[in-house]
Amino acid sequence: MNNVNIRDSVRRTEDIRFVSGQGTYIDDMNADGQLVGMFVRSPHAHAAINGFDKTDALALDGVVEVITGADWAKLGFGFIPSNSAVKENTDGTPIAVPERSCLAATRVRFVGEPVAMVIAETLDAAREARDLVEVDYAPLDAVTHPVKALEPGAPQLHNGVDGNLCVHWELGDGDATEAELEASDHVVALELHNNRVTAAPIEPRGTLAIPDMETGVTTIYQSTQNIHALRAAIAKILRLENDQLRHVAPDVGGGFGGKNSLYPEPVVTVYAARNLGRPVKWVNDRSESFLSDTHGRSQYTTVELGLDADGTFRALRTTTIGELGAYCGTVGAFTPTGGSARTQGGVYAFKAMHYRARAGFTNTAPLDPYRGAGRPEGSFQIERIVEKAARDLGFDPIELRRQNIMPKASLPLKTAMGLDVDCGDFLTVFEKTLAMSERAGFAARAAKSEENNKLRGFAIAPYLECTGGMPKEHAIVTFSKNGAAHLAVGSHSTGMGHETALCQILSAELGLDMDHISFTQADTDATPLGGGHGGSRGMELGGNAVRQTADEIVAVGKQIAAYQFECEVGMVDFEDGSFFQPGSNNTMSVGEAVSASFNPDALPDDLAPGCMNIGSTFERGVISIPNGCHAAEVEVDPDTGVIDVIGFWIVDDFGTIINPLLADGQVMGGVGQGLGQAILEQAVYDGDSGQLVTGTFLDYAMPRADDMPHMTLDYYEGSPTEKNPLGVKGAGEAGCCGAPPAIVNAVLDALKDHGVTHIEMPMTPEAVWRSIHLT
Amino acid sequence: MYEFNFNRPASIADALTAIADADDGQFMAGGQTMIPVLKQRLAMPSDVVELANIDDLKGIAVDGGTVTIGAMTPHSEVHNSLEVADAIPALADLAGMIGDPHVRNRGTIGGSVANNDPAADYPAAVVGLGATVVTDRREIAGDDFFVDLFETALVEGELITAVRFPLPDKAAYMKFPNPASRYAIVGVFVSQSNGDVRVAVTGAGPCVFREVAMETALAADFSADAVAGISVSGDDFNNDIHASAEYRAHLVTVMAKRAVIKAG
Ligand SMILES: Cc1cc2nc3c(=O)[nH]c(=O)nc-3n(C[C@H](O)[C@H](O)[C@H](O)COP(=O)(O)OP(=O)(O)OC[C@H]3O[C@@H](n4cnc5c(N)ncnc54)[C@H](O)[C@@H]3O)c2cc1C
Question: What is the 3-class SS of A383-440, one letter each residue?
């Protein structure tokens, strides 16, 4: 009997499958009679298309079909949608959402944009044919820098979009902020850059579409984070009903936001399969993944902080330029606007805040959410300006933070950005992190570094974020007569372990043997409703949906038990997997209740056989507020500029921790991505040609195991949220909110005696070396 | 990949015949560079002649004054060889810094030097130790072997059979890895043998080269201080998103200093 509880570090049940090569990813799947699809992609950052010639490609042996952008345009299908939650500019005009065709017909706007699809009997034939599709391009000037794109005279991407501007937007009270800044004794300003990165999931995107010509239903297997919303989007573009498509995500090898969006390739793949009446499979290779996956971050920002002479913060103003790439992605304009604005100011108290954003189009791959989707950007902005203020004005950075952290007694409150902060104890979390980080020995360690001609630094970075994503989630529990349970949930793991955590919740709530719970996710046939994965919603939505379903099962079980006990339902209690009537000897196990639930004779009149099989939709009221604190100790080699992150300490408040092992994994992975952004990763486009310079792992610096510091983690569970029944706050994106500022500020601490006050991310060895020797 | 004929000869003679008979043949060692190039359709050989079955190209032999490494010996074998570690520890050390375990298990010394990637490590050892590249038809001094970016003294169809290293009195290799690829942004190999000093630099320029000013200074005084003050010109150095020419020039001095210290 494997009975588990909430807070148990249950080991991941899916890992046996993953580490023994038995995972099922798109490229592992093949269907009878399957064709292979490949995409012809633009080699130009910006060009007009004068025409296509597919004669040679079609003439090749084994080639079944070639669909060019011109062909696609004639089919008259819809455009790729963008569903930004921010739909209007500050002045009430609609934001610019240019049309984006699945296959470009008359103009390409980034290197890698699909212009045609070839479909062939074999991969080799498809590849050969791809090279034979002729596209007549007339190159145009390109702009790949988001700031330059908004300047007068920049090459224009879209007819009808003036100055490449998609959105101008603000949040907070501009006048009050201005007044507070004017009343401040000091105003400290900093320009900074959240560098452009790409998720590079281990499994590239891919789709296998299998049409059933009899039923008219096409089954789409896709490496995606978001089956329900994307099924609807694909159906809409292809003018189909939702139920003509079944959308399944098998094992998904990482997403990090990059598999949230609707991309062109799966839509054309589905069309091709339906049109040809044969399964069609397309899988990106790594180079295509670099070129065509959505990228993340990329903001150029000015942050201004106003403080009193004693260090008390008054106001914060953030003015940012965001980047959308060539088109609006699925979440599009939201990330650099609302996504980044909501958590401005972090854990600190402000009298006023104001956030202003402009975001525009560039001749680069579209940008969309990347783990954190705006909150890490905001966290970096506030923690860098606080550090700068401390340095410039002579405050101790730790003390200045301590002094300005929102006191527990001030909660609940609504921040000047409108964020509903219900609970938390930011100061306690801060102090716990500090206590953990072995400050006492720092001076001795720094002296030792100095002996070795190294510089040691430390920084602490509290963060405050919020969850997001679709507000509803559905869970279905189906029992078999022997008591085994099957759990199907609409939310969706791309590797983070829902299979374990969600079954663990069900097991804990019902007292069921965890080994007797099977699990399905990400299949529109198995779950009628689901919100995919994004915004750290896995436990907040999926977990609570399971909890709510379990509660409803218990309610039915009580009716069954009461019927057998011959007592009022209200007299039945439930604990540790049994129903019982206090003060009597009457008990009934869950297993007994389940078998009774299939026996008409054991049920009261108002219950039908199978009555414990229940599906329930949980709806979130208000998003929760995960928060925490990171601290980093680094050593810098001044001769080379190399940074070694030596120590890393984290205390997170994610509310109730369902499974500490899984939470640790989320935090560590997030820190990996945060460290990557801070010192390694950067997607670089050549300014003139618009080519992606970092098109392979030879040039795109992914963090590796030996780049990672040892991490010490702890959780603060002292203020669970009442916003949801489990009291969870979302753990998925926190790691990359805390790590970049902690690491960057620690490096700057190490360099403080060299007069270095700012280095942009990624802090490459050369950038660090230059800052020491050439400033 | 385009179509090609695949040959797997079991002797050097058969390999040479296969290449001679082919329209446009190419040897393949561990395929670590070849396979990606073929996959991306950047090369279109008519024949690929795989060397993996030729025993005469494998293995490590140490005699009195030299270490001879067969062309098909993988980096991991050189790294783990107790004989190499004993005779030229710097060479075993260098082999262990190449790529990752997978690459070290497949990549070979013959493939590495034949390829002459500007950021490869072995060329620094070949030049830094004054080694000899042995081919099916002649012996080529390390100093003459590496000609330019991806260009060597090998003529068409010439097969490297081994690389022969003389034993130095002391030697060391310091590598500054590219954070993305882990190839060398700058690698400096220093050696001293009978008062003769060599300083070979890889990664910085289009091709490995000897840093003569440092060699002269070290011949007079084999100490870190002797090279600390020597700054090299970055005029012809590589310049990319990872490192400017100026930074590479700076790193040559830093790595040279550290290599001298490591050599002891
Ligand atoms: C991920 C990765 C990381 C790497 N990191 C590093 C690194 O850090 N440092 C480093 O130095 N290298 C690195 N390499 C290169 C690697 O170590 C190999 O040395 C290199 O790729 C050559 O591989 P190979 O021996 O399999 O030769 P192949 O790829 O089979 O051949 C390479 C070339 O050499 C020719 N050739 C091969 N053998 C002979 C021969 N006997 N005679 C004549 N011509 C021959 C072939 O025709 C071909 O042109 C890396 C490679 C990869 C894939």
Answer: HHHHHHHHHHHCCCHHHHHHHHECCHHHCCEECCCCCEECCCCHHHHHHHHHHHCCHH
